[in-house]
Amino acid sequence: MEIDNETMELICRLEEIVGNSCYNPNSYNGWTREYGKSFRYPIRADMSKPTDKEQDIYETRYRLYDVPPENINRIFYKFGSNELSIGGALKRILEFLEKRYGISVNELESEYKQQLYPELVKDFIGQLSGLEVYYGKDYKCKPRKNGEYIFEACSSGRRKNIITVWCNGNGSVRIVGIGKYAQRKLFDRNDFNSEQLLADLKQAYLLTQG
Length: 210
Description:
Radius of gyration: 22 Å
Distance between the termini: 28 Å
Strand content: 15-25%
Structural class: alpha+beta
Number of strands: 11
Shape: elongated
């Protein structure tokens, strides 16, 4: 199993379930006069990047976000002087399930995420698949705060953006500097599967690989 941003998000969600399963039977609530309390055990993670000279340990009682995938083994619980690497443990559990049931967590996550996208985004994922440019393997689709979805190449040179899709209204797209949609423009669905659109998408992807 490859630990990428999607599988890291899954592991952080699983950790949240584990962390929220703590219970102290000796805790006393003076208002209700009851013993026992469930609580979220604090989770820590190293947020530093490989280029950083020092660790950047972050602690929270909420779900973790944006942990660098390479730091999977540095998601941990602290028990006095002891540490439990819950990130590494959850990774090994998922790998065990992959081997036992013949599944791929990366593929399942990719399929799940695609189901959540608006139809126009799904359509462009299909267009790129026809060009043998595959979601998850060759690019990621990242939602932005203004409602747009940016298709960014996983392995790229200076240019990352393949296409930007806006799904509000009737939907518009931009393939930066290339062809009919060089600038943001209302998308004509009659262009799907056309030779020109496919050529423009292929060119846009190849430019990210230079």
